[in-house]
Amino acid sequence: MKKTQTTRLSLTLLIRVLHFAPAREAASTSLLSRRFGALWRSSGAVNLAACVPDGRDAFVRAAEAALAAADRAVTRLTLHVEGDDECSTYSSLRVGDHDVLDAVVAHPAARRVEELRVAAVHRGQPDEHDDAVMDDDVFLYILRFSSLPSNTLRVLDLTRCHNFSPPPPPRTASAAVAFPRLTTLRLRQCTYSVKHLHGIVDAAPELATVHLEFVLLTSDRHRRFGPVTWNTGLRFPSATALALIHCRGEGGAPGRSMEVTAPRLRSFTYKGEAVRFDLTSPPPTAPDTTVVTADLHFTHGLGRCVYPHFIHNFTNARVLRLKANHLDDMAVAEVFPDLEHLRLELDGAYSGWSMAAETAAATIAGLLHCYPVLRQLELNFISDLPPDSSCKNTKQVKHLFQKKCDADFEKSIDDFMRLIKFKSKQRLDIPGLSDCSFACLKSSLRRVSLQFRLGEDSDCFGVRLIKFFAENAMFLEELHILTVETESSTSI
């Protein structure tokens, strides 16, 4: 009996592995042993990859053969087409009004698919694109609503798709929705009208996760809000997780403002320009439905006043991650009463503590005043550190101490100061920080992580910042330090 259970478990795991394997490799496992046999046909997945110019007809035949060979309902369908350039890929996928990928998706064997992933790319295409690709010609294929397995679809993931037609609106209020099970929508490098996007959102009442990356959003909606014109308005009534990564407005030009309505949002990720942004979410009186985690990466902005306006939307968050070009871009002027975890990171273009220590101290002091219950603080000012840390003039030091008693605490600090050649006569206090009182330092702060560059002078601002937290955070349990030497500094 035990042997039978073990065999069944092994077969279950094998089938699960084959579920994610490319179709060609999955089929080739039948040559390994009798045990594998036609096991790949029972995986419930068809993952197809094709290279242009191998041939349009060959790809269609392979796709139809793989779908027809399935012994059980296909629940996962992946189509990945790669060409030498966009023109060859596009011409291989289109014949007049006929779209090859659309035809494969509409195959009868794919009518019960739950996860659909379709991508068309060209070789050498980078993971991230500059503004030049955000135009009306980035799409390579079209999908139609009639070709999608709408009743069973849970995950829809499209790359380089153009504005596939949304389902028709229901004729009556009691009519069934088109995507009753759709929970995840990912669009990457797509061209989409806001109207069509909302058509899908309205047809998917369970849509909880929305990820838009390098998406060109077009809209005919314009209205005045003070001196600013809204050019992008999005609504996701059931979304709990939303990511907007380098999305663009009308005609590919940077939008000056954006408003998002997401009453159930819990997690928000944004990367791009710091445009004027307004998020309509539940009031603070509904704590179970407020945004818990906000991850904001500002590449650049329309003006310094835009940053605090953007961050203002997340005053009730518990976790906030901010990345920008300058530390003072992260300054806020209001209290975040529930924030427990704060991470600040300067973009890779930042070379070190180039700003005056007084400016940096004032910014950090303002942040500490605004987060009265902060438990974990991360300050990273070397985000451009190369993956290979073995370069000649680079040295990393990771220092962790557990504050078991005052003696151990003081010894750990003294050891680190000795390591960086600290001299007792040097000045350690930080004007603007050392003479202030902060609620989080007296009651809640437990973990601090600091990453910065060491210059020729060991009395740099980063070193004094270590001493400040070590002496003033009354309940500090962990202090993580990562330092990197500059080119002109001596080895430690």
Gist?
23% of the residues lie in helices and 25% in strands. Strands 1-2-5-6-7-9-14-16-18-19-20-21-23-24-22 form a 15-stranded mixed beta sheet, with helices on both faces. A 3-stranded parallel beta sheet has the order 13-15-17. Strands 3-4 form a two-stranded antiparallel sheet.
Any descriptors?
F-box/LRR-repeat protein 15/At3g58940/PEG3-like LRR domain-containing protein; signal; disordered C terminus; single chain; alpha/beta; 25% strand; F-box_dom-containing; 24 strands; 15-stranded mixed β-sheet; LRR_dom_sf; 492 residues; three-stranded parallel β-sheet
Overall pLDDT confidence: 75
Sheet with most strands: strand arrangement: 1-2-5-6-7-9-14-16-18-19-20-21-23-24-22
**Percentage of residues in strands:** 25-35%
Biggest beta-sheet profile: 15 strands, mixed
Number of strands: 24
> Rough shape?
elongated
Tally the helices. 11
Structural class: alpha/beta
Low-confidence stretches: 129-136, 222-230, 349-354, 386-405, 487-492
Helix proportion range? 10-25%
User: What's the Cα radius of gyration?
Assistant: 27 Å
End-to-end C-alpha gap: 63 Å
